[in-house]
Amino acid sequence: MSELIAKRYIKALKNDMDAKALENISEIFSGLALSFKDEKFLNVISNPAVSSQDKTNIILDAVKSAKSEKVNNFIKLLGENNRLNVIPSLSAALNKDIAQSTKTYTGVVYSDSDIDASVIKNLGDGLGKKYDSKITLDFVKSEFNGIKVDVEDLGIEINFSKSRINDQIIEHIAKAI
């Protein structure tokens, strides 16, 4: 539900701003979205005993350094409509929208083995050529026994499990015999 609301707000922002301004607002809202992961902050924002105006002022104080009247007015609008809770969804949807318009995506490589940074860069470049985009991959060490590449915004998920590859080799050898 909050995703649909967020998309409406993004549509309004896109009509009012150029691409550079949208990227700047995206950075601001990404920072705000991180605040919603803080339990104390979330308790204040979701507390019905705290007035809507006080909640709005808290968020306005958080973005004061941006010195943007458009951002301030937008946050006031969200506060007036009791929509401050859509900020994380708004941030995610705005980042996704910008990624699609600029064809710039980020993804994650998961593996239980260390992978050289040049291999990860080459993997990102190769996927980027295939999907006519710029794809940047980050490495995350995990329990996955193999390699898994995930670029969520493009809907790409590729995995190579060591056990599955071993099973396929054994099956292939058995068929050859």
TrEMBL record:
Keywords: ATP synthesis, Cell membrane, CF(1), Hydrogen ion transport, Ion transport, Membrane, Transport. It is found in: Cell membrane; Membrane. The keyword Transport applies. One of its GO terms (molecular function) is proton-transporting ATP synthase activity, rotational mechanism. InterPro entries: ATP_synth_OSCP/delta_N_sf (IPR026015), ATPase_OSCP/dsu (IPR000711). It is a peripheral membrane protein. F(1)F(0) ATP synthase produces ATP from ADP in the presence of a proton or sodium gradient. F-type ATPases consist of two structural domains, F(1) containing the extramembraneous catalytic core and F(0) containing the membrane proton channel, linked together by a central stalk and a peripheral stalk. During catalysis, ATP synthesis in the catalytic domain of F(1) is coupled via a rotary mechanism of the central stalk subunits to proton translocation. This protein is part of the stalk that links CF(0) to CF(1). It either transmits conformational changes from CF(0) to CF(1) or is implicated in proton conduction. Belongs to the ATPase delta chain family. HAMAP family: ATP_synth_delta_bact. This is ATP synthase subunit delta. It comes from Sulfurimonas lithotrophica. The gene is atpH.
